[in-house]
Amino acid sequence: MAAAAAAAVGGPQPPQPELPAPGLALDKAATAAHLKAALSRPDNRAGAEELQALLERVLSAERPLAAAADGEEAAAAGGGGGPGAAEEEALEWCKCLLAGGGGYDEFCAAVRAYDPAALCGLVWTANFVAYRCRTCGISPCMSLCAECFHQGDHTGHDFNMFRSQAGGACDCGDSNVMRESGFCKRHQIKSSSNIPCVPKDLLMMSEFVLPRFIFCLIQYLREGYNEPAADVPSEKDLNKVLQLLEPQISFLEDLTKMGGAMRSVLTQVLTNQQNYKDLTSGLGENACAKKSHEKYLIALKSSGLTYPEDKLVYGLQEPSAGTSTLAVQGFAGATGTLGQLDSSDEEDQDGSQGLGKRKRVKLSSSTKDQSIMDVLKHKSFLEELLFWTIKYEFPQKMVTFLLNMLPDQEYKVAFTKTFVQHYAFIMKTLKKSHESDTMSNRIVHISVQLFSNEELARQVTEECQLLDIMVTVLLYMMESCLIKSELQDEENSLHVVVNCGEALLKNNTYWPLVSDFINILSHQSVAKRFLEDHGLLVTWMNFVSFFQGMNLNKRELNEHVEFESQTYYAAFAAELEACAQPMWGLLSHCKVRETQEYTRNVVRYCLEALQDWFDAINFVDEPAPNQVTFHLPLHRYYAMFLSKAVKCQELDLDSVLPDQEMLMKLMIHPLQIQASLAEIHSNMWVRNGLQIKGQAMTYVQSHFCNSMIDPDIYLLQVCASRLDPDYFISSVFERFKVVDLLTMASQHQNTVLDAEHERSMLEGALTFLVILLSLRLHLGMSDDEILRAEMVAQLCMNDRTHSSLLDLIPENPNPKSGIIPGSYSFESVLSAVADFKAPVFEPGGSMQQGMYTPKAEVWDQEFDPVMVILRTVYRRDVQSAMDRYTAFLKQSGKFPGNPWPPYKKRTPLHPSYKGLMRLLHCKTLHIVLFTLLYKILMDHQNLSEHVLCMVLYLIELGLENSAEEESDEEASVCGPERCHDSWFPGSNLVSNMRHFINYVRVRVPETAPEVKRDSPASTSSDSLSSLHNSGTAQVFSLVAERRKKFQEIINRSSSEANQVVRPKTSNKWSAPGSAPQLTTAILEIKESILSLLIKLHHKLSGKQNSYYPPWLDDIEILIQPEIPKYNHGDGITAVERILLKAALQSRMNKRIIEEICRKVTPPVPPKKITAAEKKTLDKEERRQKARERQQKLLAEFASRQKSFMETAMDVDSPENDIPMEIATAEPQVSEAVYDCVICGQSGPSSEDRPTGLVVLLQASSVLGQCRDNIEPKKLPITEEEQIYPWDTCAAVHDVRLSLLQRYFKDSSCLLAVSIGWEGGVYVQTCGHTLHIDCHKSYMESLRNDQVLQGFSVDKGEFTCPLCRQFANSVLPCYPGSNVESNLWQRPSNKSIQDLIKEVEELQGRPGAFPVSISSETNLSKEMESVMKDIKNTTQKKYRDYSKTPGSPDNDFLFMYSVARTNLELELIHRGGNLCSGGASTAGKRSCLNQLFHVLALHMRLYSIDSEYNPWRKLTQLVEEMNSQQGNEEQQPEVPILYHDVTSLLLIQILMMPQPLRKDHFTCIVKVLFTLLYTQALVALSVKCSEEDRLAWKHTGALKKNACDAEKSYEVLLSFVISELSKGKLYHEEGTQECAMVSPIAWSPESMEKYLQDFCLPFLRITSLLQHHLFGEDLPSCQEEEEFSVLSSCLGLLPTFYQTEHPFISASCLDWPVPAFDIISQWCFEINSFTERHAEQGKALLIQESRWKLPHLLQLPENYNTIFQYYHRKTCSVCTKVPKDPAVCLVCGTFVCLKGLCCKQQSYCECVLHSQNCGAGTGIFLLINASVIIIIRGHRFCLWGSVYLDAHGEEDRDLRRGKPLYICKERYKVLEQQWISHTFDHINKRWGPHYNGL
Question: How far, CA to CA in Å, does 254 sit from each of 197, 268, 721, 1527, 1789?
Fold first, then answer.
C-alpha cells in the first residue's frame, strides 16, 4: 500500500535528469518550434530521436521513478508540493510541443477550423436535461441535447424533455439512430467536399507526442492500482489516484473537443498496435517499464484473467495468430436431467478470422462459486485504457473521454469491439462492485451509445460473437445465486431457481446486462441471428428456467408469519426485465409469414425446457397443495409465441401443440395461480401478511399484466380448447375447492374449505370461467380493438388523466421500444371513446386536473364488466365502475333500479380456438349450472347475487355460441355412456335446457332435513323429457369424473384417439377422506333449467306468475331479437333476455316455456311465503327503510354543513350577515351578545370574563407591492431583463420617510407618515367568538395532545374549534354595544367651531375611558397581551423607524399604522375602490371594530404633548409667525402640508375616547379635508409650468372677493401660488424644468379630475372607517360619481347640494377658520424650508396617491422559456448553478432552494427571502419541478402548478417532460389567495420547514 501511495504522490526523484537545462525549460516554445522544423525534413530520424529523448525526460518527471525502490521512506518523504508542479510542467510541455512553438489557443482554433462537424456527439452526465423525439427517432434510445433540439424543427412531434439518469450523448447528425428531418441546422449533413484538407504539419507533432502521453497515463494507472486486500474496499486509494490524474484526463478530453481532425489523430494513436507493442512490452533496459508491466500482469491475474504467455500454467492452446481472444463458455445448465448440451453448433469450424476459441466448462449449478477463466490480450492503448477504466469502476472523466471520441467512425468500431471483448470482465467487476448503482449507470451510458446503432450491433454480432457473450455472461451472473427449488416435490426436486433475496436480484444489479441485451434484440438483423441459432436458444431457455417457479409462496395455516419478506419486488422485476422484455423484443420480429421457422424453433426448445422442468420437479398430475408461484416464464414464452404464430404468421396451431398429456400438465400451474388469486382475495392467505396481496396485485397491474396474467389465461384457453371439456371444467372446480358445495342438498361438508370462504371461492371459480370464455385478447381481437377495450375498461373505473391512462394501458410489446404500436391510434381511440373535462377551479377547492370521462354511447354499448374485473388491481374499482354505470343509466333514464353488469357481445373467435366453446356445451357445466340455479331458488346458504349473475352469464354465453343444429342433438347420445348421461341426453345447452330432471340422489349429513323423507316409488318423468332416466336418481361426482378422464387420456394411445369405449365405472362414489356420518337421500326435483329460470323470475320480481312470454303479444320479437330494452337492467331483465334467446334457438324450447307459464300451479318450493322467506323479505324491507332513514339524515347533515360553510368559510359571497354577533332586532338593547364556540354559552363580553374573536395575525407586504404604472411586471427570462423595486409603494414610502427624517425633528416625522407597507400586521377572523378563559384551557389541551398537524401550539397557533380555520390569537371584544347605539349617532346641531373645541378637550383628557386602565381587569390584561401578539407578528425592522430606538413615538406610529394597513388591505380586497358598496366579504368577517378599541386603548397611553398636537395647527391661527425662526439650532417640525392626511385622521380618531360620537368624527373629517384639498392645490401648482401658474394666479385673483371665494378652487389655487411664490419653491425651474412639466395643457376639467383623484384615497379609507365604527352601509355607485357619493356619505357635502351642474370638489370644503389666513400660515412653513432645500421641498410635495392593485409577476405562456433560462442560471450569491433553483413570483429574485451554499445564520435562502420580500410569506416557483411552493412563517406547503400540459395536467418534477402552458385561471387563484391572505385557510397540507428551504 505504501508503495502505491508513494507512486501516487511521486516520491523524491534523483535530481539530475529531472528537466532539460533551465534555459531550455524557459524557452519551451523555441524548443518546440525547433523540433517541429527538424521533424518536417524528409529525413527526420534525428528529430524523432531528439523528441523521444525530450519526452522521456519530461514525462518521466511526471512518472514516479523511485517510488517502487524506496518503499516506505519514499511515502513518508514524498509528501511535498513537488509532484503537482512537475505534472503541471509536463502538461505545459505537451501543450507547447503540440502547438509546435505557436500559442496553444491559436493551435486549438486552427484545428477546429478543420472539423467536419456532421455529428454533434455532445456527451453529458447524469441529471443533464435532454430531449427525446419519438417522431424522429429510429432507435428508442435516441436523445438530443437542448441546443440541437431547439435548433431543429419538432413542431407537432411526440417529444419530451427528460433528466438523464445515467448520462448520454447527443445523436444529432447520426442517421442510424434518427431521421435526417430531425437534424438541427448545424448538423444537416455537410458534404465532406467543402471541408479543406488538414495540412500535414498542423498535427504532425501530435502524432509523435500523444502516444507517449497516453502511455504515461497508462503507467500511472498501472502503478496506482493495488488489489484490494481481502474484503477491504479500496475506494479511497483508487479515488486518490484518479484525483491526481484529473488534469491529464481533462487534457485528453479537451483534445477530443477540438473536432474531427484531432479525433482522427487520437484514433490512430489509440488503435495502433505497433506503438503499443513498442512502448508497453516491458522488455528492454528500462527498469521502470518492467516494473509497470509486472503490475499490469498482476492486475490481470487477480481479475481471474490470464495473459496468453502464461498459457502453460493454465493449459490453454495458443490462440491463432492475430486474434484477440475471449474464451466464452457456452454453458450447459448442468442440472441432473440435462446432460451437457453443446452450446453452439457452428462453433467448431473457426470463423474466417479465426476468432473466439471456445473453452467449455462443466458447471455444476449447485456449487455457488464459479470461476470463469477468461483470456484477455491487449493489443492497443485503447484496449488497455478500457481495461483500467473497468478496474477503476468507470471513473466519470474516463467515460466522458472515451465517449467524446465516438463521432469518429473508425474509433467507434474499434471501441465497440474492445467493449465487447471486455464484456464478461465488465460484468464480473460490476458484480463485485460496492457502488453497483453508479457503475451500472456508467456502463449503460457507454453501451447504449454503441448498441443502439443497428449497423454496429450487427457487425459485432457477426465478428465478435456478441450474442454468445451476452447470453453466457447473463447465465454466469445468475448462476451465482441459485438455490434448490421447493416447488412440488421438496426432497427430490432437481430444479434450481434464482434466490430472490440475493443482492444481485434485490438491487437489480443485472440491469445493465439485460438492458443491453434488450437493446440489441430490438435490431432485426441481430434478433434473426438469435432466433436461428439453436445452441443459443437452448442456452437461453435454460436461463429462463432459472426463473421458473422462483419466490415460492407457502400458505401459512397456523400463525401469522413473523417476518414479511419483500422479495417479491425483486422477483417480479426480474421476470419482467430478464425474461419478458427480451421475449417481447424477439416477438416484435416474428410478425410475418416468412418468420414461421423462428417461432417453431422457440416453441420447440421452450417445450423441451418445460418437459425438463416437469421432470426435474417430479410432477405427475396433482399440484402440491397450499403453494403458489406467480413466476412461470417458460409457460409465458410458449403462450406468447403461440399467440403470435396464429395471429401474425398463419401457422397451424395444432402443428405446434404437444400431446394431450403435456397439455394437461401445462394447464395445472397457470390454473393454480388463478385459484390462488381467488383464495388471496377471500382472505385465505391472510397469515402470510400483506405481501401476498401485493403479489396478487402486481400480477394484474398494468405494467405486468400483459407479460403475466394475459399469457396465463391465453394458455389456459388453448388447453381448454384442446382438452376434454368435462375434464377441464371439473379441474377448475376442484382447483377452486368448491366441489363439495355443488350438491342439491341444503347442507354439505367441505373437507378443504371453511364455510366462510365458500361463497367467495365459488364466485371466483365462476368469474374465472366467465373470463376464460369471454376474453378475446389473444383470440381474434386486432390491436386497435384491444387498445379500445383496455381504454374503455380503465375509463369506466374512474375518470382518468391523459398520463395515467398512458400508464394504465398495458404497453404492447417491448416497453423499451418506446413506441406503443399505433401510438397515433392512442389519441384517435381516446377521442372516440372519451370526452375531455377541462380542469375546474373552485376557489378554495382542490386543484383539478384535466380528465377524460367515457362518452354516453360507451356506457351504453361498450362497458365490459369482464374486462374491468380482469384489469382491476383493487376490488373497489369494480364497484366504482358499477356505481358509475348505475349513475349513467339513472341519468339517461334507461334503467332506474340497481342494474346488473351488462352482457356484452364478443368479437368472433379465431377459427383455431373454436374448441374453447365446447366448454359451454358439456354436461358437467350444465349439471353445475342446474344445481346452482336450484340452490339459489331454494335459498341455500352461501350463494350470492354475484353467483347468480355469473351463472346466467354462462348460460347466455352458451346460447350465443351454440353451433350445433337441433337435428344432431339426438345423435350424440349413441356415444360411449358416461355417468353424466343419466342427467342430460346430449351436450348441447339449447336442448339440455328443456330437459327435466326428476330425482337426484345426494349425500347429506344425517342432520339434514332431506333425510327424513321417504324414498318415492318408481316415478314417471314428464312427457316431454326424454325417457332415459325414468327410474334412477342421478348422482354427480366431479372428482371421480376428472380422475377417470385423466386416466383415459393418459392411457389412450394416440392412434385410436376416440374409438375405444371404456368399461363403465361404478356410480357409487365416496368423497375421499369425508366424514363417515354422510348418508344418501333422494330429492324430488322435477325441474328443467327453463322451469328454474321462470321460477327465478317470479322470485326476483316477488310476484306470482310474473313471467309472460313476450312473443305471445308481439310476434315481431322473434324476428328482430336485438331489443334495446333488454340491454340494461337487473336480474329480471337478464332472465327475460335468456328465455327469449332460448325460444329463438329452438321451437321446442318456445313451446315448453309457454307450457310452463300456462301451468298456474304453484311451483315446487311452495310459493306461499315460508316463515324463513318472510323473515328475509322483512329483513330486506327493514334494511331498505333503514337505508332511506340514513340517506335522509346524511342529506340533512350535508345541507347543515353546507350552510355552515357558506357563513363561515365562503371566500366571496356577498351576503352581509354578521355571524359573530347575534344582533337583536330591538334597538334599545345595547349589549352585544356573543356565543362561545367552546362552552356553547351566550352572553355579553364583560370586564372579568371577556369574550374574544378568533383571529389570525400575519405580517404582510402585499401593500408594498402596489405600483404606480399599469404596465405589468414580467418575470425576467433573458439576461437583459431585470426587475427594479424602486417603483413599488413600499420603496416610495421608505424614501419619503428617510427624506423627512433628514431635515425634521424625529418625533414629528413619525407622526407625519404611516408605516406597514412592508411587514404591516393584517388581522383577519373567521367570525367565531370564544371566552378567553375557555381559549386558554383549549390551548392547554392542544399542548398536551401529541398528534399535532402542521401548526405549533407553542407559538400560540390553533385552529378555530368550530370551523377549523387557522388562527394564532384572540382579539378581546370591548364590552358595550355591537354597533354604536343611537345615542351617539344623533346629529347634533352644534356649529363646527364648538365641535372642534370638544374634540380638542377630549383628546387632552388622558384615560377618559369607561374602563379605567389603572385597575387591572381581565379585559385590560387581555388587551395588552393581544397588543404584544400584534407587535411580535412582524419583525423588529418593520416596527422601528425612529432614530432613537425604543422611543414611544415608534409604538405610536406602529399602532395607528396597523389600523391603516387593515383599512388599505380591505380596500384592495374590494378592488381598490368602493363602487360596489355594501358590506362585501370583509364586512362579515371584519374585526376592525374590536381592533380599533384595542389600538385606541393603547394609543391613549401616549398622550401627545398638546404643544405639538397637529389638531391645533389645523384649526387655529398662530399669532406671530416669526417666533418659529428663533430656535435655529434644533430641527424644525414637519410642515403640516407634508403630513399624510390619512395618518392624521387615524391619529385623531384613535386619540379620542371610545366609543366615538358621530358628529365628532364628521368634524375631524371636515377639518382634514381642508388640509388635503390644500395639498392637492399645492401639488397641482408644482406640476404645472410657469406660464400656467401666472395665468391661474391672475384669473383666481379676480374672483377673490366673490361670496363663495373660499369654495372656489380657482381662487384658492391662485392664492396658493401667490403665497408659495414668496419662497424659493418655484425658483429652481431651470434645472429640472423638463422633468416636472407635464406635457398636457391643463383645462378646468382636467384640473378638477386631478384634484378629485388626489382626494379619493382619503375619502375611501374614511368611508370604510365610518362603515366599521358606526355600522353604516356603503352606497354603491358608478366609478365617475364615486367622489360625490362618498363625500355626501361622509357629511362633507351640504345636504341641499344639487347634482345638476357638473360637480365641483371644492364645494365640499368647510373651513374652520378663514381659508386664506390658514393657507398662508401653512405655506409659510413650506417657504421657510425651501429657503434652504428647494429640491427636496418640491419632491416632498408631489405625493403619488394613485396606486394600482398589487399583482404577481406576469409569467410567459410556455414553461420552457422559464426552464431554459433558469435551470442553468448561476446564483448571484454563491455563483454556482443551484441544484434546486427557485424564483420568487413577487419580485423575481433567483434563489437556491435548500442550498447550503447561501445559508445565513442557519436560515436557508428561500426562508430568508420570504422574510425580506414578503415579511414571512414567500411564493416560489421551483424551476426543476414546475411547482409553486408557499412559505408562510415557519411552515410551508406545496401549492401546485400553474403550468399544465395540453391535456390539462400538472407535470410535477417534469417527469413526463411534455410542453407546459400557463393556466391563467390557476394563476389568478394563486394571486387572489396571496392578496386576500388566505393561504393558511385554503391549503391544507402544511409542514414545518425548520428554516431549511
Answer: 22, 17, 67, 77, 36
